[in-house]
Amino acid sequence: MGYSPIQYESFVSATYRILVGCIAACMMIILFYVIYPPTYSAYLISGCYALFILICISLYAYLAPRSHIIFIAPALKTVFLTTFLPLNWYFVVGAWMGKWRLVDAFPPITAFIIVTSIVVLTLLHSRNVFWAVGISWMLQAIPVLSYLVFHVDELLSLRGLELLATYGPTSLFIFVIIPHQKGIYFKYKTLTNRINKARRDADRDILTDLLNRRGLERWLQSMPMDTSIAVILSDIDHFQRLNDTKGYDAGDRTLVELASRLRTVYQGEHRLARWGGEEFLIILVNPEEEKREQNADAFRLALDDMPYKEDLEHKVTLSLGVSSIDKAARFQCMLKQAEESMLFAKRHGRNQTKFYRPSDAE
Q1: pLDDT of 199-213, one tens digit each?
Q2: pTM to 2 decimals?
Q3: DSSP strand E in 131-278: where?
Q4: Which residues of 1-16 are buried (b: 16+ CB within 10 A; e: fewer)?
Q5: What is the predicted pLDDT for the residue at 235?
Q6: N or C: which end of the chain has fewer CB within 10 A?
Q7: 327 and 227 Cβ atoms separated by less than 8 Å
Q8: Using CA atoms, how far apart are residues 257 and 251, in angstroms rounded to an integer?
Q9: Per residue in 235-272, pLDDT tens?
């Protein structure tokens, strides 16, 4: 599932909190067993195993790129659902072999199993997690219940009744809540998709499907402010004449075709936006200074050389203004440079590209 920036930050924050909480719980359990050594060393070994795995996941979270934090969720799911499985089977098999009574030796882990299953169901929304929780629960419940059914004396003890209540009715509860959680998950996914689509639609121009001002500004805010960019502002020459002679539908079709052509001109990293009316804004990311003029003028030439599908009485041309190369943090200053250069191009004949020079401001 895709995450919006806000959802992703929330997910990362929740992941860190879960890791810290789990590590703290493991350390408390291990400290308790160090102070009060357990009868069975498997208790301590299981706690150390869980702590080791969680520390490894934490180191990955600390060292890996922030964008990879999302891969921690499957790892946490695996730890939650498998930590107690070997311990469970170890004591059940030992009881069947006559090494101990299950009700005397079985560790107090049922509460942890329930809590971890609920955490996985609640926090890790995915199609496979429901099946994983169900299978994990059955692999732990069925061996215990099978043993107790064939050892009635242990079943009727207080500990036996506790295990029966935990793995019996609680099993039904788990399998009742799983379909409910699946319904919540699919509703959540549908709502998230709708929100993401609404956000994408709000950031795009409805006619040309280019970014609008809001979308471009959101994109600029997402990039490092020290990124080098160049701003190109273009305006269609005599566009109002086109609307007056051919009608607004013909003008709209021309805008759509022009936007489509703009997408194919520059192969480097860039963004296009319909800035307003017949104005289009182009931002080149990390452009080469020596190729700035060549790349910028390529937009005008590519649009000027090809005939338009619309039957027009005059050729469609562009006037472009190009800013100097600067940091993204100075976008507003660069936009002003491009606007002044574009207006200069329109005043001095149109169908040309004007490049901003520092001397222009003097």
Answers
A1: 888 899 999 999 999
A2: 0.55
A3: 228-236, 270-276
A4: eeeeeeeeeebbeebe
A5: 92
A6: C
A7: yes
A8: 10
A9: 998 888 888 888 888 889 889 888 888 888 888 889 99
